[in-house]
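Entry 12.
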Amino acid sequence: MSRSLPSRLFAALRRSLPSPLVFAIWLILGTAGWAQSTNSQALQAYQAGMAAKRAGDYPTAIHQLRAATQADPQFADGWWGLAWSCISLGRNAEAVEAFRQVIRLAPLTDNGIEAAKA
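Predicted 3D structure (tokens):
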């Protein structure tokens, strides 16, 4: 069985670069997709939730973003939108829990770093 191109590239990097540099490259490239979802139901609910958030309809945003995170509990962007929607309604305890999920799922993304500061 042949290995995938990313696996072969990573192996080549490991042989030719110092370990800390390979690790840094892996962190940058390997974590880039953590925040995304491939679940169509989660994506549809997320898009509806973010549209409601942009329109200032925070109750609908929260409802839709909760649906997105229930459809895909690993969807960090869904948790991120949910956290900020909860803050907009003063639901800070719920926001803190959503931010914790972002930090857990995507600690090295911009949103994960920002959530850790919140």
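Annotation: Residues 40-54 form the longest helix (15 residues). Residues 1-30 form one domain.
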